[in-house]
From TrEMBL:
GO terms for biological process: lysine biosynthetic process via diaminopimelate. The active site is at 334 (proton donor). This is Diaminopimelate decarboxylase. It comes from Pedobacter psychroterrae. Its cofactor is pyridoxal 5'-phosphate. The lineage of its organism: Bacteria, Pseudomonadati, Bacteroidota, Sphingobacteriia, Sphingobacteriales. The modification N6-(pyridoxal phosphate)lysine is found at residue 48. Pfam families: Orn_Arg_deC_N (PF02784), Orn_DAP_Arg_deC (PF00278). Keywords: Amino-acid biosynthesis, Decarboxylase, Lyase, Lysine biosynthesis, Pyridoxal phosphate. The gene is lysA. Residues 35-270 form the Orn/DAP/Arg decarboxylase 2 N-terminal domain. It comes from the Bacteria.
Length: 384
């Protein structure tokens, strides 16, 4: 991923920083858009993955909508020019202010996650003399076969309305004059690499769509969420297999005339586009362990500390053929969990070497914090 010119440039920059390969991002977006267009599928970008303005500008330009999970994300999407008619607002805990602001913006749809939320949106819309378009997020109890901290579609998860509550949900919709039911919504988890999982999801989507139609509802939108994973172990030039992904839904979803199929992809679009570049502060060689202490820590990349996520770690100052040493790669934060990897095989490493933590374009920069009064992480871009 990194040319000699890149590395020479990095050596003159203050670290740490996120390096964005905007050419790879553009290729990924174009590949996804072309694959979705074959079936007239609608793609909303999941803004929680990365809301860097340079990244969002490219996503907006390709024509994708925005999948938002906070009022702040809704506001930023509209501020940057995303079409309001392509903005959806999900989230298990929308505040009254967030709902009111989204109503004022006349967004495409609220993805509603509880019966009480339906009642609240109906009440707030009535106070404004508006109608709110809603899709019901259903918990389909489909196992995504991913890390337990990023699964969202099981009965034990907090997200969505459970199947046994759907009769009451239908009653609430029918008596809520300010709500316009437009469809059903699902999202079963993140970093899903086994595409067969989506076949199981399609079966459940078909069942729930039929359930609503049998009760007199018109299901215009089938929103199947996202969750498509990336290859963290082999990041160079990797673009997810969007054609295979969309083909599954084309084959296994029962799409009726005038129905739309919507997706909410995040990590798959941006995950490989960025690396966290850091400098070695110290090397501590011991009898049992060797440590590399970086100037980046969990404040810049939280995923390894939060759920033991893997990121490929490379010494980009040294050729790969150099003698290999095993290191625990850690940051400077005063927490024992501030560790990026244990027993990582790297060329023999020295102070001021540059280290890249790859595949950090999703849930990297957006989760950064000022803990320990750390400086705000900045971005460096391939097109600058």
């Amino acid at each position: 991923m990194f040319s000699d010119k890149d590395i020479s440039h990095f050596a003159n920059l203050e670290t740490p920083f996120y390096y964005y390969d905007l050419a790879l991002l553009q290729s990924t977006l174009s590949n996804c858009a072309d694959a979705a267009k074959l079936y007239n599928f609608h793609v909303h970008y999941a803004m929680k993955a990365n809301f860097n303005s340079r990244v969002l500008e490219k996503i907006r330009a390709i024509g994708f909508g925005a999948d938002c999970v906070s009022g702040g994300e809704v506001s930023k999407a509209i501020e940057l020019g995303f079409d309001k008619a392509q903005v959806v607002f999900a989230g298990v805990g929308k505040s009254d202010k967030e709902i009111n602001d989204a109503l004022d913006q006349d967004i495409f749809c609220f993805n509603v996650e509880s019966i009480q939320e339906l009642e609240v949106i109906n009440e707030l819309a009535a106070a404004k003399g508006k109608k709110a378009r809603v899709a019901i997020r259903i918990n389909p109890n489909v196992d995504a076969h991913t890390h337990h901290n990023i699964t969202t579609g099981l009965d034990e998860n907090k997200f969505g309305i459970n199947s046994w509550d759907l009769p009451l949900c239908a009653e609430t919709l029918k008596k809520s004059d300010q709500l316009e039911f437009i469809g059903i919504h699902f999202h079963i988890g993140s970093q899903i690499t086994n595409l067969d999982v989506y076949k199981n999801l399609c079966v459940r989507v078909n069942e729930f769509a039929e359930w609503f139609e049998e009760r007199g509802f018109t299901v215009k939108v089938l929103n199947v969420g996202g969750g498509l994973g990336i290859d963290y172990h082999h990041p160079d030039g990797q673009i997810p297999d969007f054609p295979a992904y969309f083909k599954i839904f084309n084959e296994f979803l029962n799409v009726r005339p005038n129905q739309e199929v919507h997706f909410e992809l995040g990590r798959a679009l941006v995950g490989q586009s960025a690396s966290l570049v850091s400098k070695v502060l110290y090397v501590k060689n011991g009898k049992k362990k060797n440590f590399i202490v970086l100037d980046a820590g969990m404040t810049e990349l939280m995923r390894p500390a939060l759920y033991q996520a893997y990121h490929k770690i490379e010494n980009i100052s040294k050729p790969a053929v150099a003698d290999v040493v095993k290191y625990d790669v850690v940051g400077p934060i005063c927490e024992s969990t501030d560790c990026f990897g244990k027993e990582v095989e790297l060329p023999e490493t020295f102070r001021n070497d540059l280290i890249a933590l790859r595949s950090a374009g999703a849930y990297g920069e957006v989760m950064a914090s000022h803990y320990n009064l750390r400086n705000e992480i900045r971005g460096v871009y391939s097109e600058d």
